[in-house]
Design goal:
Elements: H1 2-24, H2 48-51, H3 57-67, E1 73-78, E2 81-86, H4 89-98, H5 131-141, H6 147-171, E3 175-179, H7 180-197, H8 210-218, H9 224-235, H10 237-242, H11 250-270, H12 277-285, H13 308-311, H14 320-351, H15 353-370, H16 377-381, H17 384-396, E4 403-406, E5 411-414, E6 420-423, E7 428-431, H18 433-437, H19 480-497, E8 498-501, E9 526-531
Parallel strand pairs: 2-7
Antiparallel strand pairs: 1-2, 3-9, 4-7, 5-6, 8-9
Length: 532
């Protein structure tokens, strides 16, 4: 019996030893590179403070950025994956634009696009696609996100905002505390439901509707199932992909898949034409969506322009499952990311009353100039101060706290000043957006909220390589126009009727959620709406 126990103990110890070897075998990876690197611990890599929720994502990125402030690139580990953190704008340009062919893919963190399951949503999204499949899909989808297509969907957004304004009139008679986090996510849900799914939800008057509840469930990335999945993708992404595991749980995935499929079938069987995202994706699926010459118009400092990849002729259409995945991820982005950015802008306006007043005056002047007509897309784009305010808010709190690229071919770095080394295939590059945005070298007094940085007189001083709220290069965010349009139109309608004021429950400064999670506040943002 004793021999059996000893044998079992030895067996378990050998298994643990092998696992330890797997988790630490690359720990000295950066020792042979002529760059500094962060300390590394088993399983946690260099991100233990994040995984253990001792700090926020923005604070972590700024901290490591400042620690290596005079370094163009340094090394670290995210769990077992070697990460090259690139801080030099010229090297960022080479990796994301000039030598993009070496860094086409994102890190495999959300699912496998090759999985044929109809409920694999994140894995089949444009964000998760790799290589030639990504190129083809980007070219297919890109025409759906141009300015002309945004104009077609603008009326749908106006209808949502007018409905919300009427609802709030009955709720806010003089002054009232409002949960801005909740209001923004509900407005975002209604807009996405209308613009992407072709359905009317009205989450303000019907707060318990299933569409909103399911969405709320899915964006809870701190659920234990999601935490384990994300950790699994970090440790063994290939195995997770082969097992067909997707970041989104099957039940909500089934719900949204059925909803989108029904909408598609209704359009095709009844010949319904509604100028929303499903209409555009149906055109893309049929291969009839084409890039058209757009009239020159300034659409905002933060808008990213489509690269040559997106403007190429698409070689294949979308499958129905891929179409469903794009619509779904588009919903997630509007539900959480855009809503959070909108909440941050409102908070900034509460803290800076003078800036809020100046923006209100621009909104009133625009409203009067419309002389009773509805707001339109082109008029919204001409609101310069609105764009300045949003651009500055997104500088201070970019939704993309960092950008990632996976190296697909060995890449030789040579800065011409003696720094030479290889970024090896399979390793990952991080671009610390939050750190760059808060660097006084690029933005003097970076913690001061100053929209004037983005005025017509000053914005030429900003290096585009140092302003990255929607990414950079061919793999930038395809929906930047839609996101900015949504934030602007909601602000227009809310500020036209209400003044944002500090409540006793308003957190100043904001406390951000700790851990390796999406950008979000720790507690709901409460502000007071005062009737104008």
């Amino acid at each position: 019996m004793m021999e059996v126990n000893v044998g079992l103990v030895l067996f378990l110890l050998s298994i643990l030893g092998y696992l330890y070897h797997l988790l630490t075998r690359n720990n000295d990876y950066f020792h042979e590179k002529p760059i500094p690197s962060m300390a590394v611990k088993p399983i946690f890599g260099s991100t233990g403070s994040l995984i253990l929720k001792r700090c926020t994502w923005p604070d972590f990125v700024v901290e490591i950025y400042n620690k290596y402030a005079n370094t163009k690139v340094f090394g670290m580990f995210d769990s077992v994956t070697p990460i090259f953190v690139v801080q030099d704008p010229e090297l960022i340009k080479k990796i994301t634009i000039k030598d993009f062919d070496h860094f086409v893919d994102h890190r495999p963190m959300f699912g496998d696009s090759r999985n044929d399951s109809p409920y694999t949503l994140f894995g089949k999204s444009l964000f998760a696609m790799n290589g030639s499949k990504w190129r083809s899909t980007r070219a297919t989808l890109s025409p759906a996100f141009t300015g002309s297509k945004m104009r077609q969907m603008f009326e749908l957004m106006i209808d949502c905002c007018e409905s919300a304004t009427k609802y709030l009139e009955g709720q806010v008679q003089s002054a009232k505390d409002m949960n801005m986090s909740d209001l923004a996510s509900r407005l975002g849900t209604d807009m996405i439901a209308s613009c992407a799914f072709g359905i009317q939800i009205d989450s303000l008057r019907n707060p318990e509707n299933e569409f909103y509840s399911r969405g709320k469930e899915m964006i809870n990335f701190e659920r234990i199932s999601v935490v384990f999945k994300m950790f699994g993708f970090k440790l063994c992404p290939k195995l997770m992909g082969r097992l067909g595991i997707d970041l989104i749980d099957r039940k909500p995935g089934q719900y949204f898949s059925a909803l989108i499929r029904q909408a598609i079938n209704d359009r095709l069987s009844k010949g319904v034409i509604r100028y929303d995202m499903i209409h555009l994706l149906l055109q893309a699926k049929q291969g009839v969506l084409r890039h058209q010459q757009e009239s020159e118009q300034y659409e905002g400092f933060a808008v990213v322009q489509e690269s040559h990849v997106g403007k190429q002729q698409a070689t294949e259409g979308l499958t129905e499952n891929e179409m469903i995945a794009q619509t779904f991820v588009f919903f997630l982005a509007g539900f959480e990311t855009v809503a959070t950015s909108l909440s941050f802008v409102v908070h900034d306006l509460v803290v800076h009353e003078d800036i809020q007043q100046k923006l209100y005056e621009e909104i009133v002047a625009t409203h009067e100039a419309l002389a009773g007509k509805k707001l339109n897309y082109d008029t919204l784009q001409r609101m310069e101060y609105m764009d300045m305010v949003i651009s500055e808010s997104m500088r201070m709190r970019p939704a993309a706290i960092l950008l990632d690229r996976c190296c697909t071919h060995d890449y030789q770095v040579d800065d011409g000043e003696g720094l030479r080394f290889t970024i090896d295939k399979g390793t990952v590059v991080w671009i610390p957006t939050q750190g760059i945005h808060m660097d006084p070298k690029y933005y003097p007094n970076p913690y001061h909220f100053d929209p004037e940085r983005f005025s017509a007189e000053n914005r030429h001083n900003i290096d585009p390589l140092t302003y990255l709220p929607f990414g950079i290069g061919p793999r930038n965010c395809i929906g930047s126009r839609f996101a900015l349009m949504e934030i602007k139109v909601v602000l227009y309608y809310l500020l036209l009727s209400y003044k944002f004021q500090r409540s006793e429950r308003t957190e100043i400064p904001l406390k951000m959620r700790k851990g390796q999670t999406i950008l979000a506040v720790e507690s709901p943002l409460i502000v007071k709406f005062a009737k104008r």
